[in-house]
Amino acid sequence: MQAYASEEAGTAFAASYTRFDGLVAWLAGDRAAEMTHAELEDRLHTDGLALLRQLLQDSLDLRAVREERLAEVVDADGYRRGRAEGGHERGLATRFGPVNVARIAYRARGRANLHPADAALNLPVEKHSHGLRKLAAVEAARGSFADASAAIGRATGVRLGRRQVEELAARAAIDVDGFYTAHAPAPAPDDVLVLSFDAKGVVMRPDGLRAATAKAAASQKLVTRLSKGEKRNRKRMAEVAAVYDLTPVARTVADILPDADDERPAPHPAPAAAGKWLTASVTDDAAAVIAAGFAEACRRDPDHERTWVALVDGNTHQIDRIRAEAHARNVVVAVVVDFIHVLEYVWKAAWCFHPEGDPRAERWVRTQARQILAGRAGIVAAAIRRKATYHGLDPGGRRNADTAAAYLLAKKPYLDYPTALHKGWPIATGVIEGACRHLVKDRMRSHPQTPRPDQQR
Q: DSSP class of residue 223?
């Protein structure tokens, strides 16, 4: 029996042996001996893919020969298939090229054919194999669908259109939500529960803009250029949310920003983030994405027993939505504005009082920043305005100083850094900033053709 099986296999793979022997003979010939390594590499890549395709085809043909007819086949609705016909073929596009799959079809009048061999091979409904689908998903995550199509062609020799790559990537991602639900981080009752929200603009096609942005774009005065004060109005905001657990570590103002660089204390452990959950959407608005973030937080802490902290960049609409969502869910959330964003406002005010590149500006900013970290944002705002008045700056010259002062006063309820540092909470939005880069900038903005919202996955 073993000898018979071996003989059967040898016959089934005759075409593969012929291709392999031909390839070996060519490599041993004079023509191959005159080629450079690069030329050999290219030829072997092409002929090697053809050999692999032939091996797969021969294997499928052998399975078709060995397929045994089943005594009874019944579909999911209980209808029996009374007739069996062999030799029914379907095409399959693989990473090595196209192949045909022959199998037995079980038939009944008025009913679709059933092919049990398709289930045994786990064949997809569509033409393209799971290997091609996986490759499309991997390459699509690196750039545009057009770039993914070109990369697949270089690697496999298989030509896929941009739309085909897009559809394959979407099918490969169909189980993403289920995967992350199954791998959701376990509750960490002793850690702080941190929520963070941000947004990043993505250049869109005109038909993909939100109504307000499209209206603003259509109202531009000139056709060929922008007038003074006008924006391009080409972007749609991608809303981003992050939820994670954080082991609190108390710090002092000197740990964050010492009075002088030479006074910086020895580094010690910073608050450690774990169990990150991220989401981004260019179709949902801020309210929907923030609600999704709160839903994940509630999953981790359904009884609201942990400390909740929301990190934001100061966007008023986001803060309003966070407070509304917290009220609706009856949970206490401490909102903290990212200290780095606050620092940027102070730097802009500094250039109202110092020339660009003046070292005194750095010392002034350090002093104001330490005051803000110590909980004196209102005092700093008043000092900035007094300084602008003392120097007799005109409205244009003091604009950034007044803006910084107004920002500090408006966000003062969310600048309680003494409490945050004492309790070990985070005061910077590094996690969400990284998400904006990796989920939005590197992915959604990687398309050279401006996309539609439904193309953002």
A: S
CA–CA gap between residue 238 and residue 182 (Å, rounded): 26
Please state whether 157 falls in left (phi above 0), alpha (psi between -120 and 50) or beta: left
Please give the structure tokens belonging to residue 240: 């981003």
- The radius of gyration computed from the CA coordinates of the chain, to the nearest angstrom, equals 32
* Residue of 356, 344, 339, 345 lying closest to 402 (CA atoms): 345
Map tokens 């730097």 to a residue. 347
Angle at the Cα of 390 (from 384 to 394), degrees rounded to 5?
85
- Predicted confidence at residue 272, as pLDDT, reads 83
Distance CA 130, CA 168 (A): 9
Half-sphere exposure of 413 (CA within 13 A, CB side): 8
Percent helix, strand and coil across the chain, each to the nearest 5: 50, 15, 30
Write the pLDDT tens digit of every residue in 404-453.
Answer: 999 999 999 999 999 999 999 999 888 877 777 666 655 555 554 444 54
CB–CB of 83/70 below 8 Å?
no
The pLDDT assigned to 176 comes to 79
Q: Rounded mean pLDDT of 375-391?
A: 95
Which residue's structure tokens are 């079980």?
A: 106
pTM of the model: 0.71
What does the pLDDT average to over 318-333? 96
Detail the DSSP E strand segments found in 28-149. Answer: 73-74, 80-81, 83-94, 97-108, 111-114
Dihedral sign, Cα of residue 348, residue 350, residue 351, residue 352 = positive
Helix (H, G, I), strand (E, B) or coil at 295: helix
Pairwise CA distance, residues 244 & 311, whole Å: 11
* Per-residue pLDDT band at 30 (split at 50, 70, 90): very high
Q: What is the pLDDT of residues 234-257, one digit of tens each?
A: 677 788 899 999 999 999 999 888
Tokens of 419: 């409490």
* Rounded distance between C-alpha atoms, residue 457 and residue 446, angstroms: 12
Phi/psi region, residue 121 (left: phi>0; alpha: psi -120 to 50; beta: rest), is alpha
Q: Which helix (H) or strand (E) holds 199?
A: strand 192-203
Phi, psi of 89 (to 5 degrees): -115, 155
